[in-house]
Amino acid sequence: MKEAGRIVQLDGLRGIAVLMVFFSHSFRSQLLWSGVDLFFVLSGFLITSILLEQRRRKGWSAYLGSFYQRRMRRILPPYLFFLGVASILFGIGWMHRWYLFLFLMNTELFRDFDHHYSFGILWSLAVEEQFYFVWPFVVYLLDEGALASLSGGLVLAAPLMRWIATAYSPGHWAIFTSTPFRMDLLAVGAIIALVWRRNRTAVERYGGCGLLLAGGAAIPLLLLSWYPWFQPAANSVLVNVWLYELSLIGYVGVVFWALSGYAVGLLKLRPLVYIGRISFSFYLVHTTVLYIVRGHLHHQLVGVSIALAVSLLYAALTWNFLESPILQGTRQNRAVIV
User: Fold this and answer.
1) pLDDT class of 29 with cuts at 50, 70, 90
2) Which tens digit of pLDDT belongs to each residue from 205-223?
3) Which among 180, 256, 275, 323 is least surrounded, fewest beta carbons within 10 Å?
4) pTM of the shown model
């Protein structure tokens, strides 16, 4: 089930998630946008698992120091390198936007910025980083029972906040990209981590039933998502509560299935696992590549194929010559978090 301390099939899930996002932006297809939701659930699971293990073995200062050192090594080099590439391609006009350096790309500050297409996907990185800033303190200060209760409360609170905020939001973007409104995905990942930690045998035995849960959520999503009134841009209570919750429920089932190890051969395919490992840089650059290719090619399938190949090449080179050498400076859990 594991390879070099990793849960290999979660890398495969990450590969599926980033390809979903890529093809969503390539074809503007329905539901594939939810690949980012899968990223959030996986991050909640992996980060909580790492923090719980570090809390058991380390004191307060070592716990925080090792976590944030690891996050800086994982996030900053490929992110700053991407900003450098964007500067070469499109100029340095973005550089006075200070919030790009403080991971506030999901705030009103960023929405007021007439930013280049390349930067539009950075909102999800902001959600992740804001989670990383708060969650280590929460995990350290609470026992596992209190952590489970808090996580459950966040899972319930996020859709309630989206429901209330709908009447005050002029568009869907604020709800779609703001950390408080998407915290249920990260929190449910934390709950899965707690269940996995306490009842791993049960998850391995029964987690395959998660496919039934995923299928139960996927059916209404597939049936309803063809209608404009059941898409994120509709910005209705129905969408802001149930569209996102069905996505959450489905991905909870998918993650439990992956953790069970039952019939996960697809998730262990080496190309898919590799895409999962290089997914951060792939995610950062793919909209930039799509933008450039679309400006020169008008045949959609050819353009998407070239964009996919170029994005994968960029991510592979960045992983092998920048990210991996830097990460080898630590001896902690090597799970890749995007």
Assistant:
1) confident
2) 999 999 999 999 999 999 9
3) 180
4) 0.94
Q: How far is CA 256 from CA 59, 67, 111, 240, in A?
A: 31, 25, 35, 25
Domain total in the chain: 1
DSSP 47-109: HHHHHHHHHHHS-HHHHHHHHHHHHHHHHHHHHHHHHHHHHHHH-SGGGG-GGGTTT-TTSHH
Return phi, psi of residue 91, to 5°: 95, 180
Q: What is the average pLDDT across 57-76?
A: 92
Q: What is the DSSP string of 225-274?
A: TTSGGGSGGG--HHIIIIIHHHHHHHHHHHHHHHHHTTT-TGGG-HHHHH
Look up the domain containing 237 and give its range.
2-327
Close Cβ partners of 78 (under 8 Å, ≥ 6 residues apart): 280, 281, 284, 318, 322, 323
Residue 336 resides in a domain: no
Q: CA neighbours within 13 Å on the CB side: how many for 216?
A: 10
The arithmetic mean of pLDDT across residues 311-337, rounded, is 79
Q: Is residue 160 in a domain?
A: yes
Domain-located, residue 337: no
What angle separates helix 270-277 from helix 279-296, to the nearest 10 degrees? Answer: 90
Report yes or no on 334 lying in a domain: no
Residue 143 has φ and ψ, to the nearest 5°, of -75, 175
